[in-house]
Structures are given as structure tokens and as C-alpha cells.
UniProtKB/TrEMBL annotation:
Coiled-coil regions listed in the entry: none
GO BP, one annotated term: CDP-diacylglycerol biosynthetic process
A single MF term (Gene Ontology): phosphatidate cytidylyltransferase activity
ATP-binding is among the record's keywords: no
Domain of life: Bacteria
EC number of the protein: 2.7.7.41
Compartments where located: Cell membrane
Positions of transmembrane segments: 12-43, 63-96, 103-123, 129-150, 171-191, 245-265
Record lineage: Bacteria, Pseudomonadati, Pseudomonadota, Alphaproteobacteria, Hyphomicrobiales
Protein name per UniProt: Phosphatidate cytidylyltransferase
Membrane topology, as annotated: Multi-pass membrane protein
UniProt pathway annotation: Phospholipid metabolism; CDP-diacylglycerol biosynthesis; CDP-diacylglycerol from sn-glycerol 3-phosphate: step 3/3; Lipid metabolism
Amino acid sequence: MSRELRLRIVSGIVLAVIVLAATWFGGLGFRFLSAAIGLLVYYEWSTITDLHGRDPQGNALGWLGLVLIAGATVLSESVYSIEVLAAFVVVTAVMVGVRGKSWWLPGGIFYAGLTAIALAEIRDDDLRGFVLMLFVFATVWATDIFAYFVGRAIGGPKLAPRISPGKTWSGAIGGAIAAVIAGTAVVWSFFSADDLRIPVLALVLSVCSQIGDLFESFIKRKFGVKDSSHLIPGHGGVMDRVDGLIFACFAAFLLAIVISLTMSGETFSLGGVLLGV
């Protein structure tokens, strides 16, 4: 076994232990993890897109916004964090429109800020949030693992050759099927269900996860970088590891908000809304 492979395995195990332990305990620990991921994602986004060189003033404003969002996330002030996110995205978008700077600035604030908010809100502090977070992890990880192995075993037409030449339609379909099975198994091990809500949701999150993976590949290809950073030994950057998870969390968070507002005019536990328990 090469040194690089050993490093990759050890760091992967350490990351998995940290994430799963934080998910198990929830509360302040998971909110800290969510805030840290949001800040690290913005660091990598701004580095890849060279925001510090293109628009140092705008980038400083972006960092201010992310720090405020991270603080609100840790303090469990979800309404405030969403308001801050919206305000900084709008302000920086106006600045870009007026000054002719990079649109990657408001995009990065939205991408990183919503990552922190969505993760924290999905986990919440109850059993339903715990199960929903495990459900999201299961669908994303099953998608990644089985898309890779099924794609290599079957091959066939490429999914998006200009963006990610290695991905195939067979892998995408295999990953989606595995996600439905894994996600459904996680939820049904905690709650009984007799409808198609969970399998359909798992399929939606799997598709969103694969779109998120392609989105990050598009950004890295556009700016000519191989890894988002070198923060994780043997694994590249944080965005490299959570690209699919980010889009799956976006989908789960926004879908739960829309459903809860449509049904009653107010929001409830995201786990209760999405899982129907």
C-alpha cells in the first residue's frame, strides 16, 4: 500500500468519525461543524475563482457575510442567518452590477452560506432531524460509491463529457438506484411508512447530488484547477468531498421550506415535513 493511499484512508476514516459523531450528538457540536464547513467552502470558492485578486473589497464583504452567517448558525438563529444571507447576496449582486466585478462573489456567498444553514437546519435537535441527516448522508454516499463502481463495470455513454469525462449514464442510474435503496432502508429502520414519499425523495436527492458533483467539476475545469484545495490530506479540499452533499442539502432544505409554507403558512421540523413523521 502506497503512502498516498494510506494517508487517504486514514484521513477518510478521521473525517467520517468526526462527521458521524457530530451528527449523533447534534446540538452545538453539529452547528459548529456546519458553520466550519460553510467558512471552508467560501475559502475554497474564493480561492478557485480568485476573488481576492479580482475584487478584494467585495471578497472582504463576502467574508464578513459568511462570518455573520456562521455565528448565527452556531447560535441557532436560523431566521437571522437567512436574512443575512439574502442581504449580502443582494448587496454584492448590486455592487457587481454597478462596478462590473465578478459574479462569482454573490454566487460564492449564496453557495457557502446556504451550505452552513441547510446542514444545521436539516440536523436540527430532535430524532427526526437525526434520521433526516442520516438519510441525506446515505443517499449521497450510496450515489457516489455505486455511480463509480457501476460506471466502471458497465461503461457506456458519457453523462457530461465536457464537464466530467469519467461519469457515465450507467453510473448515474446505478447510483440513483442505490441511493433509493440506502435512503429508504435508513428511514424505515426508524419509522414505518407505507407510501412512496421516501423512495421518491431519495431519488430527487440523488439526482441533485450528481448535479452538485458536476457543478463543482464545471467550476474547477473553468478555472483550471484539479482540487478545490489541499486542506484534507489525500482528499483535496472540502468542496471536493461535499459537492454532492451540498446540492442534496439545498434540495432537502428548500423543498421542506416550500412544503411547510404551502401547507400551513409556517415552518416546522424539516425532518417531520420531508419524512412525513
